[in-house]
Write a structure and sequence with these properties.
Structural class: alpha+beta
Helix content: 10-25%
Number of helices: 4
Distance between the termini: 22 Å
Mean pLDDT: 81
CATH class: Mainly Beta
Strand content: 35-45%
Low-confidence stretches: 1-9, 20-54
Order of helices and strands: HHEEEEEEEHHEEEEEEEE
Number of strands: 15
CATH topology: outer membrane lipoprotein receptor (LolB), chain A
Oligomer: single chain
Length: about 280
């Protein structure tokens, strides 16, 4: 008989929150690269066309936008093994090992194991239409929609957001409404959407995302998420952050650290999700 994991339901809710929050904390809007430039009007008597004036700021802003889009990681499949550390108001929680398999725009398969017991406690399948959660300890299965995950996290997102989050792409950031500022060794980019204010910190060399600070647009919520990215590695012709830290502050504080131990892109992959007959539907 498997050893019960204390406060499993509470901890797994935080895990789901983490998976989604990390996801939210990412949906790169499909960005248009073109920005309107005001056209100068030629004098009536002039026979020579006058070219529109392009400021240095406009050129630089467009360059940053192009680099952000260039670094947007695309894929067909992903397999990863992730060490997850969680700390909340109750202190440090037992470590979790997450195995993730993703098929682009189709499925996200996640297995969550309590590292100290080496026992799989949850298995999750997310598709654009549904969410299936297997509680391996209680032998229960739950069928939900993405609306359920939105309810758990209280964050509006879709399947692409989850997908982008796992890849480490920016979330809730619209380059068409962004402003940029150059500092000595980094670039600051800020964007405001209907849900979040997002301040990105980009490296000055490869324009890699080093930090994302998300503040709820509703100031009464007092909800903030800080995400840091580190240990970049050039994989699959893209930069990939192997280490991420997410700090969420609202009523309670939640600190999540993710270390990608193994990562593979674009290998032949299938996701099977067999549900034992003796599992109870909840």
């Amino acid at each position: 008989m498997a050893t019960p994991v204390p406060n499993l339901k509470k901890r797994m809710k935080k895990i789901i929150y983490f998976v989604c929050m990390l996801a939210l904390i990412v949906s790169v809007s499909q960005c248009k690269t073109a920005k309107k430039i005001n056209t100068a009007i030629a004098p009536k008597d002039s026979t020579q066309p006058i070219r529109p004036a392009i400021s240095k700021d406009s050129i630089f802003n467009q360059h940053v936008i192009d680099q952000i889009q260039k670094n947007h990681l695309d894929f067909n499949t992903l397999t990863a093994k992730i060490k997850v550390e969680i700390e909340n108001a109750d202190g440090k929680q037992p470590d979790i090992t997450a195995v993730v398999r993703m098929i682009k725009d189709s499925a996200i398969w996640i297995s969550l194991t309590a590292t100290f017991l080496n026992i799989e406690v949850y298995r999750v399948l997310v598709t654009p239409q549904k969410v299936i959660l297997l509680n391996k300890q209680n032998k229960e299965v739950q069928y939900r929609t993405l609306d359920y995950l939105q309810e758990v996290t209280d964050i509006p997102f879709d399947f692409k957001t989850l997908q982008d989050f796992m890849l480490g792409n920016p979330v809730f950031f619209d380059v068409n409404k962004a402003s940029f500022r150059v500092h000595d060794n980094y670039i600051a980019a800020s964007s405001i959407s209907s849900n979040f204010k997002n301040l990105l910190t980009l490296s000055s060399d490869h324009f890699l995302m080093l930090h994302s600070k998300l503040d709820d647009a509703d100031i009464t919520r007092n909800r903030t998420a800080d995400i840091s990215y580190d240990n970049y590695e050039f994989i699959n012709n893209n930069w990939f952050a192997r280490y991420r830290q997410i700090f969420v502050s609202e009523k309670n504080k939640l600190d999540i650290r993710m270390e990608f131990k193994q990562v593979e892109f674009n290998k032949q992959l299938s996701v099977q999700f067999n549900i034992p007959k003796n599992y109870t539907r909840k």
